[in-house]
Amino acid sequence: MILNLVQFLTNSSLVMSGIFIPVFARSLGVSYFEVGLISAFFSAASFFSSFIFGKSADSNRLRPIILSGLAVSAVSLFMQVFAYNAASLATIRAMVGFSVGVYPAALIVSVYYEKGSIGKFSSFGSLGWMAGYLIAGFIGNIEHLFVLSSLFFTIAFLAALGLTDAQRPSISVSYFSLDVLRNNLDVYLSMFLRHMGAVAVWIILPLYMIFLDASNFWIGIIYAINPFIQFIVMRRLDKFRNEWLIKWGIIISGLSFISYSLAQDFCSIVPGMILIAFGWSFLYVGANQLVVERSIEKASSAGILNSTTSAADIAGSIIGGLIMQYFGFKQTMMFAVICSILAMMVFSWMNRPSHKSSI
Predict the structure, then answer these.
(1) What CA–CA distances, in Å, run from 333 to 50, 110, 253?
(2) Fewer Cβ within 10 Å of end Cβ, the chain: N or C?
């Protein structure tokens, strides 16, 4: 119950704080390319943090890692109210990125060792996204959202004080071991490619919707469709094969990006939101379950998966900003489609039994 509540509050906080960052950055006079760079700073910090603390969670107690991550996240999110130009916003977003990379692997592994459902746990993250998008749409004021997002993390920290450390086997972890990466390379690489394309879209999607005459209110409402469906879908995925979930998650994601490119007004974004909800639900649950089940170093495997998405955030943010700066919205969407095709090809090839046995 506590783990689900923490998952809900933290995810709600992150989306309500992050959804209007591109719009806020543009209001500070930031170029499209610089919008991508600001997102890349956030993702780079999260990449290193997720790797470091994912490894740490395999050899140290989980509760202190969760609590410290929640505490520093609450502080860094509040610091966003002091951003006044591109440099300060990039610096503070990097602080937020590092902070929010501390606790996720420890949370997922806690769920696993307590015999909980990763799918149902993940669904509470999606429910948090929905709440965050709705709150963001209704409030609209970005500085008020920064304060509220910090408050949500504070509440999550107070709730997590009631956690007890999960019982688990003690293992020896090397920070420089490549075994976890090698054993799950098919998942990590395909996730990187698909997510890189997705981030290129997400970094400019609020601006695209404004271009299509959406208000902040409607941006929040339409964004909320995605996690609402995720919440329903993720809770029902435990019975499916993880490899099947990953493949169909990639395919459906590609279809969603095509749908975005065909939008004629902001209401036309809705079909893509429905598709991406199914695509991400399948991919996220399937990937997390597969790497955790395969690995002895379970927190490390989850941490590297989180680092993989952060690395994709870096590349996708920069590429998305560049494509948008020099080409346009629809070209950014088509880049994401190409990434999904490559991800499907990579996973299908690397996941073959003959290939898996040779790596």
Answers:
(1) 28, 37, 11
(2) N
Contact 44, 134 (CB under 8 A): no
Crossing angle (nearest 10°) for helices 104-113 and 62-79:
150
Q: For residue 172, tell me if it sits in a domain.
A: no
Residues of the chain with pLDDT under 50: 357-359
pTM (2 d.p.)? 0.75
CATH code, domain carrying 150: 1.20.1250.20
The boundaries of the domain holding residue 207 are 2-163+179-356
In a domain, residue 37? The reply is yes
> What amino acid is encoded at 226 in this protein?
N
Distance CA 329, CA 146 (A): 27
State the amino acid at position 279 in one-letter form.
G
Give CA–CA dist 9/109, Å, rounded.
18
Are 69 and 103 contacting, i.e. CB atoms less than 8 angstroms apart? yes
**Number of neighbouring beta carbons within 10 Å of residue 237:** 23
Number of domains in the chain: 1
